[in-house]
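Title: [Solved] CHAT domain-containing protein 3D structure

Original question kept below for reference.
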Amino acid sequence: MEQGWNAFQSGAFSTAISFWQQAAHVYAKSGEVSAQGIALTQLAQAYQALGRDQKALTSLKQALKLTKRAHDPSQEASILGHLGNVYLAMGQLEDASQWLQQSRQIAETLEDASLLAQIFHHMGSLSSARDQRVEAMQHYGKSLQLATQIGNRALGTRAAINAGRTAILLQQYPLAKDHLNMAWLQVKNLPSSQDTAYSLISIGQASKTLGEHLPEFRDALLQRSVEALIAAAKMAEGQNDDLAASYAWGYLGQLYELEQRYEDALQLSRRATFAAQRIRAPESLYRWQWQIGRLLRATGDIQGAIAAHQRAVDTLQSFRPEFGPVYGRPRASFRKVAEPVYTELIDLLLQQAATISDRAEQEARLLEAQKAVELFKTAELEDYFHDDCVVRVSDADLDKVSQTAVVIYPIILPDRLELLVRLPGELKRFTVSVGGKELTDTVRHFRRFLEKRTTREYLPYAHQLYAWLIKPLEAELKSVDIDTLVFVPDGPLRTIPMSALHDGKGFLIQTYAVATTPGLKLTDPRPLPRDDIRILSAGLTEAVQGFAPLPFVEEELDAIKHIYGNEPLLNETYLKTRIQKKLREEPFSIVHIASHGQFESAADETFILTYDSKLTLDQLDEMIGLLRLREEPLELLTLSACQTAAGDDRAALGLAGIAVKAGARSAVATLWFISDQASSQLVSAFYRNLRNPALSRAVALQRAQLSLLQDLRYDHPAYWAPFLLINNWL
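Solution (posted by the thread starter after getting help):
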């Protein structure tokens, strides 16, 4: 056990895991239940340090069972607190709250001040994650008070640091300064350890931030930041803790980067890189490779900057980053932390391509940029679903598969919009002078007004977005014989239907069929086999589980039955178990669900309503996976009554990734819900068109949308535009 702790304290988490696994095994064989529970609890801490949250949860839940058998309430409360902390790090705040409340109840019954000090600290971090900053300050204050009473200076220091951080967020800068002063005084009296090194790192980072808000104390706070980071680095090196050393040297380099001391910053960043490489710590390494890339760019070494950014991306690709918490703070979002690495690489490659006159060499750079975009899209989807096995990468050559489609990658950068366009046989780039903020604001207005059926206020925004996204390509599009535009949308563009862009004369859908995909490499483009199409259709007309009735669903399912002769599962027959049984027994090529579907920012909060329960994306994947086992993948999944919140880019990512997650070649789904006969009319037209082997899926949907557009009752895009064809358009 002690060897594991020594390894953990030095940052060798994988080594600690090996020691604690062995210890747990030995205690299990000898029947020492309590000791086995302690070993598993420590094992979970090592897993969490590596961002392997699911393994941490498994270890803790096993430890909890053992501790209950041993009737050790103090250890039980400790494990419950650890469970809350892991769920907090994963961003599952309700679960975190439940475990922490259980832990607190036991600790209060035991009057265990040591446990309560830890629990209040975790609860402070939970409140902070919920943006309940006043509550967070109260919890950190209680933790600090109890830690001081029992003489736990290490925890008291951490509580003071986090109270200081929270005070900064509350704009209570003098209070923040007081807390950080207290932490700075206390940390000097702590023994050399990993905890102390990380406290010093945190003081350094928080002091730098506070200096930005207190200009009269800026120099003193920056000096403290430098002293704290140097002390942390030396302490870490003295303990052979390369991980802590890499963060200390790296953050010091970041501080010098802000001061434009580029040579000093480069030297420190390389030192941080070497430390991270020595212990194979990709979660640290990519940060400093990226930092070196930024520094080289600032000094004018563009080729060096590209190489450094590529190394950072390669490192990110080697693991699924979950961006570990610092003393209980939840993990940062993938988009905030990892996206800039990819975006800056893409930006550098595109800028370099613009300086190259040789067409072949220029296209090589554009291909590298396209590859970087695809890598980011894949990583983003893996992060959304918390599953690095969800993505099934295709190596299909677009030019061989389809000569009738153009693929458009809109790339939103802070100062401009780049359009990377895959035309038959070539890749081209177009630059549009619109900043990311202006584009995003326009997208938000467009989406909001699109859903208003009684107004045409969306039109100016539809015109503007057409001018930015399509107008620059018009000449190229007219020069090739294509009928479909496939968009790989970025960020806010996922929340809008491209079909509703307008050139002043007509909608884009009136000229081209439109499809969307989270990434071309995530698409398996092949034509739909029209012989022996088998469809499983299901839906709700009744109000269940607090959701409104869907009166036109029966008409929609009857229309599908008339076309394909299938018997739908309606209302009380539309049960999760019935769906599973049907999929197990028959090789369906299409699954159509006409029921409320809610796509949220978190994949585990996304669901499709059944009569008796809610179908999660994991359950849907598991059910449809039964078809994959027969090597007869689902050709099409249709969700005709789902919705995403306007402005929620991440929820729209979930919608875009539904086909990939479910293992379907393509999906048809709605961005917003249409409680109207229009939906059933469009769906029945789509399925009638789909029977025609001369029509691709995209064209079948296009014609169905045009049939509504030509109907005066439904010509507003609120009725026909929310339907998206996702992934395979053929």
